[in-house]
Amino acid sequence: MSAEPAATPSWLSPDPTAWASGEPTDNASVPAEESLAPRQLPLLVNPWDVVLCTSGTLIACENALVVLVIWQNPALRAPMFLLIGSLALADLLAGLGLVLHFTCAYLLQSDSAQLLTVGLVVASFSASVFSLLAITIDRYLSLYYALTYNSERTAAFTYTMLVLLWGLSLCLGLLPVTGVNCLAEEATCSVVRPLTKNNVAVLSVSFLLLFGLMLQLYVQICKIVMRHAHQIALQHHFLAASPHYVTTRKGVSTLAIILGTFAACWMPFTVYSLIADYTYPPLYTYATLVPATYNSVINPVIYAFRNQEIQKALWLVCCGCVPASVAQRARTPSDV
Questions:
Q1: Are 47 and 66 in contact (CB under 8 A)?
Q2: Strand partners, 196
Q3: pLDDT digits over 103-132, tens only?
Q4: Among 33, 121, 290, 310, which one has the highest count of C-beta atoms within 10 angstroms of its own C-beta?
Q5: Separation CA 93–CA 56 (nearest Å)
Q6: pLDDT at site 236
Q7: Distance from first CA to last CA of the chain, Å, rounded?
Q8: Which of 264, 234, 282 has its CA nearest to residue 17?
């Protein structure tokens, strides 16, 4: 007669001390008489979990400010700001999910609470990645259909993207809660407990496909921006010295930084999730998972705080005034 699997105060292993040993988390080789039930072990705080909780707190505070500014400012209702708000809301929920997972794992130690918090984290990070794709699509359409970008069709398309991305993210987050988990069968666990290997494989492959699509869209954006800059420079008869050409090159560099940052944060964990399982040392999983959360720390800096309109709203919220340098700054191609 098998007992119900005990909850774990770690993302990875039923043994809360496994992170310290650096050994694989498969406990099959440990004799029963030499092992203690998880609830009988001293409750140690995994420092990696503390790092994740700290990251979650920073993510939640940072993105809560963006959500508040967009929510309170009626002028920030254009499709671009709705997508930025969706990204900030997703990252806000992801940060709260990390904090709640830490709290529930070490205080409640309940399987149900663990499933709910992991589901929230999966749904939130999925919505964050989907929102990044939606922002990329929006930027491409704003350049490719520059004359009709602000039409009602654009707004309707934006709302459709928002409904689809949040609906799909919710479905992905509900999978662990509705029974697609490895609590009953440890051998099916992935590098992130209680997600199954198949579940994480689907998430990882989906991420790679989304990244490939974003890469293709950013390549097309770069081509459009460079073509426009070249046409403007030829009209002024001085290509290399054109200020517009210089700022356009900065814009292309900005796009490269955006995509490179996204890949640097998520690609290690994505690839590792495909090749590893629960028997791998927990240290490797934490070393790839923590940088992935940093993408939600960087997102507000790249997509919100660099935006001139959001900068003005932030200044109004913080000090009730807008500096002249912010109010008079003209939008350039480097702001893409």
A1: no
A2: 189
A3: 888 887 777 888 899 999 999 999 999 999
A4: 121
A5: 9
A6: 63
A7: 61
A8: 282
